[in-house]
UniProtKB/TrEMBL annotation:
Cofactor comment: Contains 1 topaquinone per subunit.
PANTHER family xrefs: AMINE OXIDASE (PTHR10638:SF20), COPPER AMINE OXIDASE (PTHR10638)
Organism: Patellaria atrata CBS 101060
Entry GO MF terms: copper ion binding; primary methylamine oxidase activity; quinone binding
Sections of the chain in a coiled coil: none
Signal peptide stretch: 1-17
One GO BP annotation of this record: amine metabolic process
Protein name: Amine oxidase
Family: Belongs to the copper/topaquinone oxidase family.
Any one cellular-component term (Gene Ontology): plasma membrane
Pfam families reported in the protein's UniProt record: Cu_amine_oxid, Cu_amine_oxidN2, DUF1965
Annotated catalytic residues: 411 (proton acceptor), 500 (schiff-base intermediate with substrate)
Residue intervals passing through the bilayer: none
């Protein structure tokens, strides 16, 4: 039994190596984690091509085509920046560091998506490589009619042919790439313009805030005597004709989100002239005071005393070790890990950001707003998806106070992709994961987020298939048994946008299915605790309420099942009365059948009640060996929801993509995105109106796009302290072959066992040549010790 012996040996070596080193228990957990992070940052300096299963690099492959979706390079960004700032461009730009409200300056530069119509002839034929373009948003406060205008700049690299043109064609709201001044992103320039009003107002009532909030005063964020922080969310306008800030005050510190106070200042900040900004009022104790005089009168009458003190020290809300919580037996031992014992089984073209794995192949891209994106996803050489990308991360809150009631977030507004940060090997991703950098542009610079994307194959910890069939029996009571090992390749990135860490996993399974999951961890945007406001969430600390909210993650799946012409087939399970002559005694009786049809027109729709319908993207022109239409099924996973509130003024027309579980539209070059990045401040007059995608076009045997939502109704709880847990805050969906093949795609896998009882009463054991790996886990090289991992 050499094989099982080897396995036992490997197992015991790993255990003893970890326990001999004893470093994990000798060091305080925080110090230990820092070492790992430092290690992740320094990356591996040793010889990566060595054979260890932890250090080995993935084999390389050459992408069949140039990655035409790739992000623009640092050189292109700099050249675009210089071109924009060249006086000859006529844009009259000021450097952002010196800009005021009434100057023109660059907000950001990013990569413009490449039109599918120009990609397909290149990808599938001899067409030319499509031209590359940058997109840039320019704030034009220096204009007669101030606005924000987006431009496309290309072709790249910058040459005499390169032009700067308004980027209007992807927006359907009526004003193209122009966003009114009042609705544009509230950057530092715009926020500081409101400082004088906020500071003078809060200074005038410093005696009141100090008395109510344990000495809390606000004289501006840079004043050394200030003891409060000010925060306002979005939207900050309804339609661009007004601008406002509903400011909430909190105690500062790393967990400031968890120490909110019962005090709000509402200001109007419409236009480019700060002298015209004014105070709309104050809110505390669930009462509104239009003027400082009214507030002061109530204060002096003792009417607005605070029932609870907020905690000044928020150490209870840090994600650090809490020894006072006690000890869990054996927990000082190093936790289990997933290791690629047989070496890496996926191939990479790092230059082209192209990956091959077990029949899968795909390209990756990235934008600062949408994060990581996938293109030309094929399985066994046939295209399944042209594009798979996040479109928006929405969160909407509720509460009887200005901040929670007002808050809707679109995280693309905050450049979600740029917030995809460094991952900790061994904790955020398995040891030995391939780590790629993510970079984005800031001004004329390119910022590198090191090791922000990890790629790894893991054991699924359950077989992809197995069966114990009749036939044969042995001394072991055995019957024929077949079992196939489960594994999957995952690409993962975590975006920390303000208070939340969203973890995005795209997992490619051996059977041709593709799973997407999103998990959320991080601080609740909490509210001050009011005993009568339980309907907006529970009390989670002495003066803190966890505010009720929804998270909706909107994705685009541009399916191309073998080719671009696809249909959305709905198979409803219906219960029907029928008779069958061989059951005369039953008369009419109910049974189920499938009612199959294809959707005709573009539409938004929801999962059927009781999940009693199957939705498949099929290619009517492609049949499998049995004459069935080849397709992929959209399999609902966990928590596939839409927004709870459909008619809120704060999300009325700019968040329509989050208001149904699913939607299907025709693919168009001018409808690449569900949302626009500055739409959040335009709920009543959107720059991009998702509803306009539904203009009665046919989706039957056409190039169609499926839009789908993952998410979570966040019923906040004490266990969201210190942070929301990834275990529970979790949503997923699966795309699985549905008659795409003639049989399950596991027969060609060698990592399996076929065990049959033999004549002698023993077992014949077939391993198809795939022996248990010894890899680094051998007596001569106990690589699994923690020390060794730290030194990689
Ligand atoms: C790295 O390892 C490979 C394979 O063992 C070896 O050929 C090469 O010389 C090593 N390079 C260095 C710099 O040690
Ligand atoms: C250029 O912008 C500045 C403000 O930054 C403005 O004062 C000036 O009038 C503008 N020049 C032209 C020609 O528009
Ligand atoms: C992409 O397609 C749109 C719509 O047809 C067109 O207006 C635009 O110029 C195209 N972009 C490029 C870079 O060719
Ligand atoms: C900070 O604010 C206080 C109170 O308004 C003021 O007296 C002081 O001058 C400010 N400090 C600075 C550096 O502006
Ligand atoms: C990531 O970026 C760092 C710093 O720019 C660089 O040293 C490293 O080689 C990069 N890693 C990869 C995998 O490209
Ligand atoms: C970027 O701009 C800054 C000034 O804004 C300048 O000092 C720096 O040299 C520029 N970098 C490059 C690469 O041009
Ligand atoms: C089948 O017939 C029974 C008896 O008439 C009726 O109660 C039931 O609702 C029918 N079922 C369906 C699905 O029509
Ligand atoms: Cu949440």
């Amino acid at each position: 039994m050499p094989r099982s012996l080897c396995f036992l040996l490997a197992f015991s070596t790993a255990v003893s190596a970890a326990s001999i080193s004893g470093r994990g228990s000798a060091l305080p957990p925080l110090g230990y984690e820092r070492r790992l992070l430092r290690d992740a940052l320094n990356k591996r300096s040793s010889n990566d091509s060595e054979g260890s299963c932890i250090t080995s690099e993935a084999p390389t492959v050459s992408a069949p085509k140039t990655n035409v979706w790739a992000p623009i390079s640092a050189e292109d960004n700099l050249a675009v920046w210089n071109l924009l700032h060249d006086p000859a461009s006529g844009l009259n730009l000021t450097h952002p560091d010196e800009a005021t409200l009434t100057d023109n300056y660059v907000f950001w530069i990013d990569t413009l998506h490449t039109n599918k119509s120009s990609v397909i002839p290149y990808l599938d034929g001899d067409g030319p490589v499509p031209p590359k373009y940058a997109r840039t948003i320019i704030f034009r406060g220096g204009q007669e009619e101030p606005d924000s205008q987006e431009f496309m700049v290309g072709p790249l690299p910058v040459s005499a042919e390169t032009t700067i043109e308004p980027l209007d064609y992807i927006y359907n709201g009526g004003s193209g790439g122009s966003v009114p001044f009042n609705a544009r992103y509230f950057d530092g320039v715009k926020t500081s313009a409101t400082d004088p009003l906020v500071i003078s107002t809060m200074t005038n009532i410093a005696d009141i805030t100090a008395a109510l909030f344990q000495g809390g005063v606000y004289y501006g964020s840079s004043n050394e005597s200030t003891t409060l922080t000010a925060t306002s969310g979005t939207p900050q306008s309804f339609d661009g004709t007004q601008a406002f800030r509903n400011i909430m005050f909190r105690f500062p510190g790393p967990a400031t989100y968890m120490t909110p106070l019962d005090f709000f200042l509402l200001i109007d900040c419409t236009g480019t002239d700060p002298s015209k900004y004014f105070v709309k009022g104050f809110v505390t104790n669930e009462r509104f005071f239009a003027t400082e005089a009214e507030l002061r009168a109530a204060f002096e009458a003792g009417e607005i005393a605070q029932e609870y003190d907020q905690t000044l020290d928020a150490s209870w809300a840090l994600v650090d070790y809490k020894p006072e919580m006690g000890v869990r037996e054996l927990e000082e031992r190093f936790a289990p890990n997933s290791i690629e014992l047989g070496g890496k089984r996926y191939k990479l073209d790092k230059e082209q950001q192209y990956i091959e794995y077990m029949g899968w192949s795909f390209y990756m891209s990235f934008t600062r707003t949408l994060g990581i994106m996938f293109y030309d996803i094929k399985f066994k050489g046939e295209r399944i998806l042209y594009e798979l990308s996040l479109q928006e991360a929405t969160a909407q809150y509720g509460g009887n106070q200005p901040k929670a009631a007002n808050t809707v977030y679109h995280d693309t507004y905050y450049s979600l992709g740029a917030e995809m940060g460094t991952l900790v090997e061994g904790f955020d991703c398995p040891f030995g994961s391939t780590m790629w950098n993510i970079s984005y542009h800031e001004g004329n610079q390119t910022i590198v987020n090191q090791d922000a994307l990890c790629i790894f194959e893991t054991d699924m910890n359950f077989p992809i298939s197995r069966h114990r069939a009749g036939g044969g029996s042995s001394d072991y009571g055995f019957r024929n048994l077949g079992t196939v090992k489960g594994a999957m390749l995952t690409t993962r990135a975590i975006a920390t946008v303000g208070n939340y860490d969203y973890m995005f996993d795209y997992s490619f399974h051996l059977d041709g299915s593709l799973e997407l999951s999103v998990r959320a961890s991080g601080y609740l945007q909490s509210s001050f605790y009011y005993p009568d406001q339980g309907k907006w969430g529970p009390r989670i600390q002495q003066a803190t309420q966890g505010s009720l909210h929804d998270h909706i993650l909107t994705f685009k799946g541009d399916f191309d099942i073998v080719a671009s012409s696809n249909s959305l087939e709905v198979s409803k399970l219906v219960s029907v009365n029928q008779t069958q002559p061989w059951f005369p005694e039953l008369g009419e009786f109910e049974q189920m059948e499938m009612d199959v049809s294809c959707m005709e027109k573009e539409q938004q729709f929801n999962w059927a009640p009781n999940n009693q319908a199957m939705y498949c993207i099929v290619n009517k022109n492609e049949k499998n060996a049995w004459g069935e239409k080849r397709g992929y099924r959209i399999v609902p996973g966990r928590s596939d929801i839409h927004l709870s509130v459909l008619n809120s003024p704060w999300s009325m027309k700019n968040t329509e993509f989050a208001k149904s579980h699913l939607a299907v539209t025709r693919q168009h070059d001018n409808e690449p995105f569900a949302n626009s990045v500055q739409n959040i401040n335009l709920p009543l007059k959107p720059q991009q109106d998702f509803m306009k995608f539904f203009d009665d076009e046919s989706v039957d045997d056409e190039d169609i796009v499926l839009w789908f939502n993952l998410g979570m109704h966040h019923f906040t709880r004490s266990e969201d302290v210190p942070v929301t847990l990834f275990t529970e805050a979790f949503s997923s969906i699966v795309f699985a072959p549905q008659n795409f093949f003639d049989r399950a795609q596991d027969g060609d896998l060698l990592n399996r066992r076929w065990i049959v009882p033999n004549e002698e009463g023993g077992l014949d054991y077939e391993d198809y040549g795939v022996e248990l790996a010894t890899c680094a886990v051998s007596p001569s090289e106990p690589v699994l010790s923690i020390d060794k991992v730290l030194e990689l």
